[in-house]
Design goal:
A hairpin with a 5-residue loop joins β2 (33-38) and β3 (44-51). This protein starts with a strand and ends with a strand. The longest helix is centred in the middle third of the chain and has 12 residues, at 52-63. It has a five-stranded mixed beta sheet, with helices on one face. With 93 residues, it is an alpha+beta fold. 30% of the residues are buried. It has two helices and five strands, in the order βαββαββ. The chain is globular and about 35 Å long.
Amino acid sequence: MAQVCTISWVHGMVQGVGFRYSTQREALKLGLTGYARNLDDGSVEVLACGEADKVEQLVAWLKAGGPRSARVDKVLAESHQPGKTWTDFGIRY
């Protein structure tokens, strides 16, 4: 199966509600690598790399609203070629 990377920007009430940690748990469950990090504009950036169908599942989870404590208004996602290889899925600060 081909390895792909997708970068997503999640907008809404997604900071201070455990969004990055829930995203990390979901990504690890799917066997993905990458990261989740808060951005200054209040959104969360999510880079997910792995098998195409698993990455699509994570993006669908993000679009469905993520954890119950969050409110997702919009998710923008596009293919990405990262400058490095990720070995796990981390939380970046």
